[in-house]
Amino acid sequence: MTMDTTPLAGLLAAVPDTDGLDTRILDAALAEFETYGLRRVSVEDVAKRAGVARTTIYRRFTNKEQLLQAVILREVRRFLTAIAEATERLGSAEEAVVEGFVVGLQAARDQALLTRVLHSEPESFLPQLSMNGGAVMLAARDILADRLRRARPGDRQDFDTVAEVLLRVAVSLLLVPDGGLRLDGEDEIRAFAREHLTRLLRPSP
Amino acid sequence: MTMDTTPLAGLLAAVPDTDGLDTRILDAALAEFETYGLRRVSVEDVAKRAGVARTTIYRRFTNKEQLLQAVILREVRRFLTAIAEATERLGSAEEAVVEGFVVGLQAARDQALLTRVLHSEPESFLPQLSMNGGAVMLAARDILADRLRRARPGDRQDFDTVAEVLLRVAVSLLLVPDGGLRLDGEDEIRAFAREHLTRLLRPSP
DNA sequence: AGAGCTACAATACTTGTAGTTCTGTCCTTC
DNA sequence: GAAGGACAGAACTACAAGTATTGTAGCTCT
């Protein structure tokens, strides 16, 4: 048996969650953070919403910061799972590129926590971005690259980089929305990806 | 005679700068902002460094914010000029893609003001990004798209979007450096652009 | 074993205030 | 048109007093 050390494995590793109380707490914390931002939420608030004593939260999570990280981790895991599932039943590599991009961009835009912090507490966003951003991108990249390799078994091209470029385009659309590309609906996103991003793939050998 | 209304024209429009005093002030302001950030610099500091009375600055610029915007505008103009010049004597469209990306990314990374604010005053960076980021990207996109069209006179493909994707990849490398792609030296950047980004171009007709 | 509850020290965050700096304008002199 | 001084109002800094929050511990109940 080998030790899993990839970012993907680390981020997608199964969670114990014996009794569902962790889940209740994380749900409450997520709801609070999404509604009020990070700064204005106290552990007490989370406890009240979860219907739990404050001390219980401290028994499960070492401190507020780690609670936040646990919330983020779960959201990241959901995000990655969404990408993984949407690209699982793979047709062509082109299809994987398109669906990976569409789902990735949409899921990121729909992340209430992310957009909340980005818009109402930008000062805490950049730090979080440099703390988690790279790892999340690597994990998502690994998933997509895997899909591409599966779709093109013989092909030895650099799928990692192709996948990362996809993701970086999505990231920049998220962070700098006011460019020439609007990409509003799912249809627009898909059309753009199909028309332009599939070109990143070399024609199959 | 037609009115120029493109972002490019607006940003690249010639500056009067009658006497060179504006330049002295802008030089001083740039140096101060690069060294100490935006918050810690007073107009007095700028005046001292420029060897000018503080009131003079207020005669030339309406307020501190507008002085900052003038500094940024000049830097943006330099940035765009660098891209425009580096891609002027165009060979193939592929060459334009590669050089545009290399010069754009390097120039952005070497912008002392940008990196200064990004790292030491992130809270003021995101607002600036949404204020100016889109326009700058549009202007740079127009320049690059123009180069591509010139290199492929008959070709009717969507060069605007190709150019924008290039730029967005560069932006994301700037904002999220800790991914799988390091792209440290000029050679690495160029190799990446040549290998992957030129694929965004459709083969010539 | 683990949640609830109370209590508690330490820390962090508000509030109000006084003092200082900075901004932006005006006016006079050169 | 620039320099320089002078000035009111705004913004920032420092600091003290009060309040809220954090994180820990002990005890009870199941």
TrEMBL record, chains A, B:
Q: Name one Pfam family in it.
A: TetR_C_35
InterPro entries cross-referenced by the UniProt entry: AlkX_C, DNA-bd_HTH_TetR-type_CS, Homeodomain-like_sf, HTH-type_TetR-like_transc_reg, HTH_TetR
Protein name (Swiss-Prot/TrEMBL):
TetR/AcrR family transcriptional regulator
Q: Which residues bind DNA?
A: 42-61
The HTH tetR-type domain extends over 19-79
Q: Could you tell me the keywords of this UniProt record?
A: DNA-binding, Transcription, Transcription regulation
> Record's superkingdom?
Bacteria
